[in-house]
Amino acid sequence: MEAIDLRAGMTFEKDGKLIKVIESNHHKPGKGNTLMQLKLYDVRAGSTVQTTMRPSEKITPAILEKKNAQYLYEQDGTSFFMDTDTYEQYELPDESIEHERLYLLENALVQIEFYGSEVIGITLPSTVNLKVTETQPNIKGGSVTSGGKPATLETGLVINVPEFIHEGEVVQINTANGEYQKRA
């Protein structure tokens, strides 16, 4: 596989390390060659690094197994999940799922990612429903097409919502880009 094919959420092996892509941008400077600007997470070391790669650079995708699971709770910097088939419990450090935790409520269904027998992360559903806990009051004449306003959701995630959304409403959020979809 080539570096130009990397997308957020993909995992690959490099120099004996297991690397997860957090962000991937194709960058064409005014002069010179095209580069891939990447924000990468070293799954085992728990560190995040910004780097660049040539688009033609070869990488080895990691072969991951996924199992259906339910998010149970968070305690002392660790999140706990349960396999919905075998009822086996798995732990993940909060740093390894920092982005995903903003979309997780207790009992939420996710997929746990395994590399061999090693638990390395989770995959969220494409959308989640979250309650608005704080936003500015309604503005008369607000519409879907206006610029919107910031809203804090029950998990602490802050997104932009249309003017007509108010506190207490449940909204559907796209987990890939963190954008408002519709009222739930």
From TrEMBL:
CDD domains: S1_EF-P_repeat_1 (cd04470), S1_EF-P_repeat_2 (cd05794). Its main location: cytoplasm. Coiled coil: none annotated. Residues 128-183 form the Elongation factor P C-terminal domain. Residues 66-120 form the Translation elongation factor P/YeiP central domain. It is found in: Cytoplasm. InterPro entries: Elong-fact-P_C, NA-bd_OB-fold, Rib_uL2_dom2, Transl_elong_fac_P/YeiP, Transl_elong_KOW-like, Transl_elong_P/YeiP_cen, Transl_elong_P/YeiP_CS, Transl_elongation_fac_P. Pathway: Protein biosynthesis; polypeptide chain elongation. One of its GO terms (molecular function) is translation elongation factor activity. Signal peptide: none annotated. Keywords: Cytoplasm, Elongation factor, Protein biosynthesis. The keyword Protein biosynthesis applies. Involved in peptide bond synthesis. Stimulates efficient translation and peptide-bond synthesis on native or reconstituted 70S ribosomes in vitro. Probably functions indirectly by altering the affinity of the ribosome for aminoacyl-tRNA, thus increasing their reactivity as acceptors for peptidyl transferase. Belongs to the elongation factor P family. HAMAP family: EF_P. This is Elongation factor P. It comes from Lacticaseibacillus baoqingensis. The lineage of its organism: Bacteria, Bacillati, Bacillota, Bacilli, Lactobacillales.
